[in-house]
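User: DUF2844 domain-containing protein, Paludibacterium paludis:
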Amino acid sequence: MKALLSLLFATACLAPAAHAALGDKLSDPVPAGRKVIAAAAANTAGYSVRTSLDPAGITIREYAAADGTVFAVTWNGSDIPDLSALLGKSRFAEYTRAIGEGNGNRRRAEVAGPDLVVQSFGRGMTFRGRAWLKSLLPAGVPVDVIQ
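Assistant: Predicted structure for DUF2844 domain-containing protein:
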């Protein structure tokens, strides 16, 4: 457990932020080193999804409300992305505290706080996960769309 926390902390300190964190506005233009591979607007549902690849080849999806505020992120790739950049510093701290309390490890982590929800799974060389803020989920948007 201590090794996992050390790894998460090191990742947070060394990796540059390349994505809009939960609760932030989508960055435009896309940060350097990242390649947008799809952008779709679900206008009837009141949100949009931007899909990109980070420099490590991890697919990141950012779900933004109509005003551009990121309410959810997902990831899928050969490693765990920089979660401090995706969650934001304070929410990353909340996540690591929950992990330290026995709510997960490198292969599986599930955190469900009052607002922040993080689900991360790893199998073989594939890691996938999703995180969202309950308070920012647009009205009428089910959690199931966060894939």
